[in-house]
Amino acid sequence: MTKKIIIANWKANPSQGQSIKEFFSKFSKSFNADVIFCPPFVYLDNPEFKKYLLGAQDCFWENQGAFTGEITPAMLKDLGCQYVLVGHSERRYILGETNEIANFKIKQAIGQGLKPVYCIGEKEGQDWQQIIKVQLQEGLRDIDLDKIIIAYEPVWAIGTGKACDWQTAVKVKDFILTLLGRSIPVLYGGSVNSNNAKEFLINMDGLLVGGASLDPEDFEKICSLSN
Questions:
Q1: Given this model, what pLDDT does residue 2 score?
Q2: For residue range 69-113, what is the model confidence (pLDDT) as tens digits?
Q3: Across residues 18-40, what is the average pLDDT?
């Protein structure tokens, strides 16, 4: 049986590195899942993460050059990253990233041996089928689908405490796989916590966890549901 994938997206947290040691003093190591931590760039080389799989929250679409402030896939690979989030809604809607930009990033990440986790999802009131169709068609153009993971994160569920119900998530997953014409991992993300994670883990290929992943006790409960 394929292991579930559980990703902790710490976003711009914590503000001090000492908090990472405190987190892992309360977090166990043994889970029957691929647990991936995606901390901010400045913490990627923290030794605490070496017990788990390591991912980055974003990358640039080139590997070197005069791109002030950018972090490249080659740099991430050198730091030990195996995964990278691409197309998260906060980057789409706060920073204006497009499906085309996501496509460039995915290609460069794959070229460096990283596995991109491509984030897709609709805003409240939007036609989710149309939005997801375009995100897949444009974001995955000329991409080897064997080398990516999809994370369905309805924008209206992120950070709101209002998770999508698992039946709808499964419906979206089936729609995604039908469009792609093949089976690849599809995760769910959006207000995931230890109270609602079980059904998502049963019916999806894993989870992309935001706020709850910063709470060691709650995140441990989520990861333990895979055992």
A1: 87
A2: 999 999 999 999 999 999 999 999 999 999 999 999 999 999 999
A3: 95
Phi, psi of 225 (to 5 degrees): -65, -15
Burial track 181-196 (b if 16+ CB lie within 10 A, e otherwise): eeebbbbbbbbbbbeb
- Of 90, 97, 122, 153, the catalytic one is 153
153 is catalytic: yes
Q: Is 199 a catalytic residue?
A: no
- Which two three-digit tokens encode residue 170? 């499964």
Distance CA 175, CA 21 (A): 41
pLDDT at res. 30? 85
Structure tokens at 110: 């794959």
Choosing from 62, 88, 122, 199, which is the catalytic residue? 88
Dist CA 31 CA 185 (whole Å): 19
